[in-house]
């Protein structure tokens, strides 16, 4: 980690310090000596060596570990997700003015947020949070210049009505919290997988189709936001041989699969993989 990467993260956080509120007492926070966030009643949170801040109320051990995020980075760098990111960027570009402040709630290793901010020609401020420390550590290292924080999206350490856009890609949502955080007229953009998402992997790892956890994500979304629109993004992506192992590693679909089955899948190979998403867009409800 070079100093400049760390400093770029710290500078971004200093510029956006007004967004924060203390995760313990909800008081306002300030940056002290470029090295910690401190609230007005003196709760203090040191910045990490790479310039992110951990504002999660307690340490969380999740299944999202360092190797999973490394695998996600490898797959995302291959352009796997580009058409989805193009759609999301267009939605943000068309739906917001000036320099939007974008919160990625459940940002993982941060590549989507960094990509979207760069597609917006840097004319946006990115704030990424995730409960998995390994994801945020990777984001701070690989994508300096945004605000990166370990935090719970169900209890965000941010003030009310400060964000123009909330992104929620393949991550759990908390709509009451997202509504609190959005400015009036702010946008929520959520991407959920559809039936054909990674269907080639499902065919190998499941004998039968596994039921989806949320059977009506659009209906649930529409209960909380106005002017809801959806866009289906479906395509097949040619898979280089060396991307199959990280693809298998990165997805919760294969958690619990035996080594034997993984070996078989690698031997079999997969020339292409299907991506199938619904991207939802909704506007904060008045009142
Ligand atoms: C499938 S990953 C998606 C990550 C990223 N958005 C992407 O598309 O690559 C789901 C993410 O949600 C995060 N997550 C789950 N519950 C969370 C919570 N309560 N607060 C913040 N992040 C959470 C996980 O740590 C994980 O990084
Ligand atoms: Zn406090």
UniProtKB/TrEMBL annotation:
Signal peptide: none annotated. Keywords: Methyltransferase, Transferase. GO terms for biological process: methylation. InterPro entries: 23S_rRNA_MeTrnsfrase_RlmA (IPR052939), Methyltransf_25 (IPR041698), RlmA_N (IPR048647), rRNA_m1G-MeTrfase_A_prd (IPR016718), SAM-dependent_MTases_sf (IPR029063). Transmembrane segments: none annotated. It comes from the Bacteria. Residues 102-186 form the Methyltransferase domain. It holds the Pfam family Methyltransf_25. The keyword Transferase applies. GO terms for molecular function: methyltransferase activity. Residues 20-58 form the 23S rRNA (guanine(745)-N(1))-methyltransferase N-terminal domain. This is Methyltransferase domain-containing protein. It comes from Sporosarcina soli.
